[in-house]
Amino acid sequence: MNSELTSEMANQKHPRMDLLVSFDDGRLANIEMQAVYAPKEFFYRMFYYEIRLASRQVLKEGEPYSNFHPVYQIVITDFIISIEYEDLVEQFEQRNWKGQALKYAGQLMQLIFVQLPKVPVMDARDMSLLEKWSFFLKYFEDEEKQ
What we know:
Number of domains: 1
Order of helices and strands: HEEHEEEH
Protein name: PD-(D/E)XK nuclease family transposase
Structural class: alpha/beta
Helix content: 10-25%
Largest sheet: 5 strands, mixed
Low-confidence stretches: none
Number of helices: 3
Shape: elongated
Distance between the termini: 56 Å
Mean pLDDT: 85
Number of strands: 5
C-alpha cells in the first residue's frame, strides 16, 4: 500500500456501529440507538453509516455485481425525526421522482427508522411484536407502564 493511500485512510472518519449484524445469506444490518437529535448532522451521519455498511462487501475480480447483498441501516430513535413521517416505522429505499423503485437495485440499501415516541400505548394483547419491543425500549424504566 502506498504512503499516500495509507495517510488518506488514517485521516478518514471511522464510525463505530452500535450493532453490526451479518446474516447467513450475506445481507448486513447496522442497528443504531439514537437519543440526541441534531437534524442536519443526524441524516448525514445515518447516510454515511449506510454507505460504510455497504462498502464492507468486497466483490472479487470477475464476480458479478449481482452478488452484492442488501444492507439495512436500522435506526431506533427516542425522538421524532420529522412530523411528516407519521408511522412508528419509516422505511426508505432508492426511488425516482415518481416514486418508482430502482429496477433490481431499489432495495439494496434501505434506511429504516423506528421512532419510539410513536409507539402506541395500548393493551399488549393488541400490539404487534414490533410494537411490543418498541414499547419495551421506550418505557422499560417507567414503572407505571410496566
